[in-house]
User: Fold these one by one.
Assistant:
Number 1:
Amino acid sequence: MKQGIVRLLFSGVIILASCDRESNTDLNFGDTGVISAVELQISDEAELISEDIMGIAEDVYATDEISTVSKNNYRSDFLPDCAIVTTVTTDTSKEKTIAFGEGCELPNGNVVSGTMYLSYNKDMGLATKTVELVLENFTFNGVAVSGGASVVRTGATEGANPKGMASWSFEGVWPEGEATSFEGNRTREWIEGYGSGSWGDNVFLISGSGTHTNRAGKTHTKEIVEPLRKEWSCRFIVSGVLRISRDGNTASLDFGDGTCDAKGMLTDAEGNIEEVALRRFSKK
């Protein structure tokens, strides 16, 4: 593993849906002020970055795990040909390097560059395993990303789905200069698609809590009160409820009934309910 490189988030990450940059919708926190639409957008994009990083790492690790127990030559179709994966096996560990070069487009259209390193025990038969991840010169849609995580992963067993439980923190610096930090604890359960080899049928349930701090030093806490359902075939969370708090005031965001759409119901501190447009990085 590269020494001195900060570790980056691997698992248990949520997506916070945001308001459209072109919308005037703000999140009302009563007398303490509002969280602006742009601020929510940055928070959303930061967590999208984290989830896609987690998705890459999970796919690479799961491919190794499934190949060990499968009678067939298992291969996932998630990583594009521009992502080069190499493995070095030591007496006790496997060291994976995923190199994206100067730019590599993922199946969902997001573009990453730089290098990701994974390290974990080479004994794939262990019931639980700690996975470490670090990044080097990594960008996501032009955002420079750093940070780290330690993830305890449990594999699929009879009657139980694979899970990743992570304690993590990371930072992102946007091309416009906006900088944010995010940290927390997340559990990500792989409920559908494990072992199929097709990335499009993967479904995860996400739970946990965390904090998001913007450049101005304003920190808000985010807690999942109803598990968020993430389907890889959809760019948005399709169901679940997220509570957002700051200075003792709270608001909530309901992601819907399972439909893949860019809509959510936002309830502010005063009980006002509004449908908001959810948006991710603009496609250029």
Number 2:
Amino acid sequence: MSSYLQRLSILMLAAWLVACNSSMPPRQTPPSVTPATKPMPSERPATPGTSMTTPPNTYPSGSGPKIINIDPKPETTGNPTDGIDPNTPLETSVTPKLEPIVKGTTKPYIVNGETVTPMSEINTPFTQTGHASWYGKKFHGRKTASGEPYDMFKLTAAHRTLPIPCYVRITNLSNGKTIMARVNDRGPFGRDRIIDLSYAAAKQLDIIRHGSAQVQVTLIDPSQPLDTAVTTAQPNAEMQTSSKEVVQVTRTVTSAKPASELETNGIYVQVGAFGQEENADRLQQRIFSALPETQSLLNKVYNGKVFQIVLGPYPDHALAAQAASQMRDQLQLPALIFSR
């Protein structure tokens, strides 16, 4: 009996110990040290050399405006003409023509925080006056905004808002020299300038030595007869004299004569053909003003369809070719030699 009671007591004690052990809280271990976590990409320090003022492009990839940040430091050092062969032939004239606007060049873009919205079509009148500079061998061969390689020996230019491509008349206000050029690139961005000229364009305007000049830029609409009137910008005495000549030669413009009256067997140079006589008159006035020595050779004729401005007759083809070159080089006029 006593052994039975003894075993029963042992079983009851074991059961009580089990019950007590299951109701106790688990053992508390010392907290472990959590290892340092890596910073997220946005928390990482900026890469050395990266500008912290660069505005973020918050637009989805490919949908927002292009962002351009320009370093205000000087763009070049040394003589910019070093390494340019002075004997390389330069383009001397361009003929404005209608060309499709390059896709993508009409999208807004941001330069140093300023949003620039380019023109999407030829919209005249457009005239702008400001500072011009030129860019040369550093960019020669690089792709322009039009997709074409930059050729410093052609009459081209870069503008921030004009359609690409388009044609402009550029006048150097310090000397009155005028050229026509094709805009095929974006810029200038770095300084307070309105247009960057190719080496060929800058050389014709005589701004290579100084590097920059005050100019007037006029957009040309190729769908309209070329307005060849002398520019109204007259900053010096030389251009004031030119203005007086225009007033004088306005009275000299003659009526058109039939094309049949041109001398038979003569050699002529056509520099313009217009559907409206007043446009032919403007060209005639411009040539009188710039080259008064041509007055005896300058004719306005009507062939039954258009009014033509022709120079001649010349006794031989060599003299006619010389006159054609003068019209192209000095007045940027298309010149066609023909015989009767």
